[in-house]
């Protein structure tokens, strides 16, 4: 872990983020780090799979694919070549709550990189022939996910936690919903959601904030809409479930987890500490007990996933079918030991230092800085300085962690979702 001196040294190199809001509502955030020679740029749209209906499940992700298939100004090849030809990188991703188009490049190439990203977001053509081709690509992506039980188990777990809510659906969609998507569907969905009040533009690296703002004005100032995105209801009643799926695989994959709290909760840092000491590294309780001491699993970790108004907490592991019940029993036993005997000051301190170190070291990546700007604005509508985060983590006591453990580690509240091999 970094020493206090190293932390202070890194923090001095980081200039606090700047924020500008255009008249049409688009938000611009930047974070300047003069010691690097690159820039990471992102255009965020506050729409994801939770905004979809059953009938168009996967459309947010499909649009993310289709913008790369051609715009009014560039062919698919020209888009692919635009940043690669100058040593840059261009990509995108869709989550349950947002879509992000991003690029990384040398700081001298900011104008061309911005032109390309803006072109993707503003001018996709959604050619009907390309739509049909891309359906095949996305269906292959869906097959690829279904062939990866480590990914697939997460979708099954989400479905168990949110059985009647859009958050329980796969981001990719289904074979049926993908096959029926048409050009008019994409245009209608994009026009509804890709509006100024729903757009955030973030940049981090060796940059000047005013230059970024001027580029946004150049490309996005004419984009106007008085529409507001409707708030998605995240109300649902969680009920623990036991679900087992059978696949032609070699191991059993398990998520033993439950509902938790949102990103807005004051408990989130306490939760990250609890998750870290449970299964957040090689020195964690579960890694030591399940893998090192008993040799039951290669992969085991805990997680806390906080969304805007909900969240999940759990443990993932992959192990031989014959060892699955013993491994799960060890996890349950570790929960019970914590509730019975408590935690040690040493392990809580170690978990806190792990979180603080990870936070500070992330400042060395302009991409992480850009992502942090976007997610903080989406979830909190504000930015937290690294000093604030470190102070908050440090302020959490062993009693705080135990109080949360007493609420969260109740075994009867956990769902047990498994993918078992078809041949035992």
Question: In words, what does this structure look like?
Answer:
By secondary structure, this protein is α+β, with helices and mostly antiparallel strands. The protein has helices at residues 4-13, 59-66, 76-84, 110-122, 128-146, 149-161, 175-179, 183-193, 209-220, 268-279, 285-293, 324-341, 345-361, 366-380, 386-395, 398-408; strands at 18-21, 27-32, 38-45, 89-94, 99-106, 199-205, 242-247, 252-259, 297-306, 311-319, 415-421. It has 2 domains: 4-220, Metalloenzyme, LuxS/M16 peptidase-like (Cytochrome Bc1 Complex, Chain A, domain 1), CATH 3.30.830.10; 242-421, Cytochrome Bc1 Complex, Chain A, domain 1 (2-Layer Sandwich). It has 16 helices and 11 strands. The strands form 2 sheets. Strands 1-2-6-3-5-4 form a 6-stranded mixed β-sheet, sandwiched between helices. Strands 7-11-8-10-9 form a 5-stranded mixed β-sheet, sandwiched between helices. A hairpin with a 4-residue loop joins β4 and β5. It is globular and about 60 Å long. It starts with a helix and ends with a strand. Mean pLDDT is 93; it is low at 5-14.
| Beta-strand percentage range | 15-25%
Which sequence of strands runs across the widest sheet? 1-2-6-3-5-4
Distance between the termini: 43 Å
Helix segment count? 16
Provide the structure class.
Answer: alpha+beta
**Total individual domains:** 2
Unreliable spans: 5-14
Overall CATH architecture of the largest domain: 2-Layer Sandwich
CATH-assigned fold name of the largest domain: Cytochrome Bc1 Complex, Chain A, domain 1
Order of helices and strands: HEEEHHEEHHHHHEHEEHHEEHHHHHE
β-strand number: 11
What radius of gyration results from the CA coordinates?
23 Å
């Amino acid at each position: 872990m970094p020493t206090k001196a190293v932390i202070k040294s890194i923090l001095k190199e980081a200039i606090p983020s700047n924020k500008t809001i255009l008249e049409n509502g688009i938000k611009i955030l930047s974070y300047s780090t003069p010691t690097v020679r690159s820039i990471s740029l992102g255009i965020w749209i506050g729409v994801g799979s939770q905004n979809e209906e059953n009938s168009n499940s996967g459309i947010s992700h499909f649009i993310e694919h289709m913008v790369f298939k051609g715009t009014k100004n560039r062919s698919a090849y020209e888009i692919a070549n635009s940043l690669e030809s100058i040593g840059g990188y261009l990509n995108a991703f869709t989550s349950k709550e947002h879509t992000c188009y991003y690029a990384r490049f040398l700081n001298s190439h900011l104008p061309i990189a911005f032109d390309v990203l803006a072109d993707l977001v503003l001018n996709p053509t959604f050619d009907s022939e390309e739509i049909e081709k891309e359906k095949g690509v996305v269906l292959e992506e869906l097959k690829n996910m279904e062939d990866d039980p480590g990914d697939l188990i997460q979708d099954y777990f989400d479905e168990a936690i949110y059985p009647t809510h859009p958050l329980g659906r796969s981001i990719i969609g289904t074979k049926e919903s993908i096959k029926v998507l048409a050009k008019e569907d994409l245009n209608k969905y994009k026009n509804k959601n890709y509006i100024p009040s729903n757009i955030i533009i973030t940049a981090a690296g060796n940059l000047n904030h005013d230059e970024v703002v001027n580029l946004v004005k150049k490309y996005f100032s004419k984009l106007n809409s008085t529409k507001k995105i409707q708030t998605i209801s995240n109300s649902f009643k969680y009920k623990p479930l036991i679900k087992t799926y059978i696949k032609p695989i070699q191991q059993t994959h398990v998520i033993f987890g439950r509902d938790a709290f949102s990103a807005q909760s004051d408990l989130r840092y306490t939760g990250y500490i609890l998750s870290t000491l449970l299964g957040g590294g090689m020195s964690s309780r579960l890694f030591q007990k399940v893998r090192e001491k008993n040799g039951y699993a290669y992969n085991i970790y805990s997680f806390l996933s906080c969304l805007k108004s909900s969240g999940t907490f759990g443990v993932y592991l992959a192990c031989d079918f014959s060892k699955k019940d013993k491994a799960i029993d060890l996890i349950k036993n570790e929960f019970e030991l914590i509730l019975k005997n408590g935690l040690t000051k040493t392990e809580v301190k170690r978990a806190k230092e792990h979180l603080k170190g990870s936070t500070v070291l992330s400042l060395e990546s302009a991409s992480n800085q850009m992502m942090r700007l976007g997610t903080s604005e989406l979830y909190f509508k504000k930015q937290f300085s690294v000093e604030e985060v470190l102070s908050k983590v440090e302020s959490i006591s062993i009693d705080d962690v135990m109080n949360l453990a007493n609420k969260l580690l109740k075994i009867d509240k956990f769902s047990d979702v498994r993918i078992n091999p078809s041949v035992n």
